[in-house]
Amino acid sequence: MNLEDHPTVREYRSGERVAPPGSIRETLDSQWFKQAAMEAGADDVGLASPDQPALAGELINIKRTFPETITLASIVCRLNPENIRCVSRSVSDLEFLQGFERVNEACRKIAVGLRERGARAVNPASGFPMDLENWPGRMWPVSHKPVAIAAGMGQLGLSRLLLHPRYGAFVALGTMLIDREFSDYDTPIEYNPCVDCKLCAAVCPVGAIGADGHFNFANCMTHNYRDRMGGFSDWVENMVDARNRFAYRRKVTDPETVSMWQSLSYGICNKSSYCMAVCPAGSEYIGPYLEDRKAYTRSVVQPLQEKNENIYVVPGGDAEKHVAKRFPHKNIRRVGNGLRPKSARSFLDALPLVFQPGRSEGLNATYYFQFTGADPVSAAVTIQGKSLTVTRELTGKADLTVKADGAAWVGFLRGEKKLLWALITGKIRLKGSPRLMKAFARCFPS
After folding, report:
1. In sequence order, what E strands does 5-106 have?
2. C-alpha of 289 from chain center
3. What CA–CA distance (Å, rounded) separates 420 from 175?
4. Which of 3, 57, 123, 424 stands the most exposed, by the fewest C-beta atoms within 10 Å?
5. In a 3-state reduction of DSSP, which class is residue 330?
6. Exposed / middle / buried, residue 23 (Cβ in 10 Å: 0-12, 13-18, 19+)
7. What is the C-alpha separation between 378 and 376, in angstroms, rounded?
8. Do 59 and 79 contact (CB within 8 A), yes or no?
């Protein structure tokens, strides 16, 4: 059939021409959009320009996801705090699932409304799915929290959760990338809703939230995401390595196996999220905390602290020591977290995320890493005073220099190559005391 004879083409040719989305570039009214967003199911919404200096680190990802982006909309849906605070994780998990679904559905409805106005929009998932081909690096197309901050939806608290001025931590976030300018834009709020109560630090079972402001990503992920991503990879390897079902049962209990089944068949299964549960931030929820802090602690914080449960830790990490000291009634489960570098560059990028400050006590040294191969990269890593810095400038004097073929180094870290083989063949060369290499490894047990 000739294209012009196709029924769809004939209908289009014979009817009134409708301008395709994106062809009419008029500015959209901000108040109309916010009202439409609320009617679609959002509890709050803010608008931001991607050109804000605070979003400079996100701009390349925003443009990669939707090159036509002119405006970012932060979509907020509130969560039920009583569900999140419940000691039953199934109740809390259901609230998260429904919250993410509400955000995604609201964004879908908003996108339909925008299209009717000739505008186009993209809305990445509120939670999962993600671009897992990038694991273990950045898997999300757009970071919702920086956009929410830029759009006036809150600030980050000590817990690293986005704290909304009204709803506090009890929010699910979404982002819309829109190809239109709007009549008005929002700006970040001028204060932080965090009241510095440090309850999130007190309740975190793995000590990932430090009262001093330090946050340990690896410890948080190893426990809370045990049934997902890296935890799932570790579970698969346990299954593959087991000689028979009895060997498997010695490493993985029946409840852990069926927990993995539930996560795969049903949806998100968190092991904690206690930082959100105890947070009193936000004008709508701060009252009980201000009126009677002891009663608030008894009713909200202590039930989670006292709960008997498995806590998942990497052997030898700071989390294991924290659980034993602060929560001796909880059951320590030593596991792998599946965090394996894909390249020498990703190894360097991940160091601040997996660094264990407690394991570095007494170590003061500078390490030079110089990697050759398909993706050559160098960096200086300094560990001093239980803190870590990574820079790409090799200045001054190193206590230990590691020169290595990038592929060989990654193979060694992943357990696929033997260090002795790499040293003998010259794939990895050390200049300095080998004891410093052992001390370095102690700081990164994952």
Report:
1. 44-48, 71-78
2. 28
3. 49
4. 3
5. coil
6. exposed
7. 7
8. no
Q: Identify the CA nearest to 49 among candidates 223, 181, 189, 237.
A: 181
pLDDT of res. 12: 85
The CB density around residue 206, as the number of other CB atoms within 10 Å, is 28
CB 62 within 8 A of CB 138: no
d(CA 334, CA 80): 33
d(CA 239, CA 349): 30
Cβ neighbours, 10 Å, residue 272: 23
84: its two tokens = 């999140």
pLDDT value, residue 19:
62
pLDDT of res. 1: 80
Does the predicted model carry a pTM greater than 0.85? Answer: yes
Question: What single string gives the DSSP state of each residue in 82-105?
Answer: HHHH-S-HHHHHHHHHHHHHHHHH
- Integer CA distances (angstroms), 130 to 142, 152, 229, in order: 10, 25, 11
Structure tokens at 89: 């994780």
Q: How far is CA 145 from CA 44, 175, 238, 328, 417, in A?
A: 14, 9, 35, 34, 39
User: pLDDT tens across 53-66, in order?
Assistant: 889 999 999 999 99
pLDDT at 65: 95
CB-side neighbour CA atoms (13 Å) of 213: 3
Beta bridge partners of 215: 209
Measured CA to CA, the distance from residue 162 to residue 168 in angstroms comes to 8
Structure tokens belonging to residue 253 = 């209990």
Measured CA to CA, the distance from residue 346 to residue 340 in angstroms comes to 9
**How far is 317 from 334, CA to CA, in rounded Å?**
10
Please list the ranges in the chain whose pLDDT falls under 50. none
Query: Mind listing the domains of the chain with CATH numbers?
Result: 20-178 (3.40.109), 199-334 (no CATH), 344-442 (3.30.1050.10)
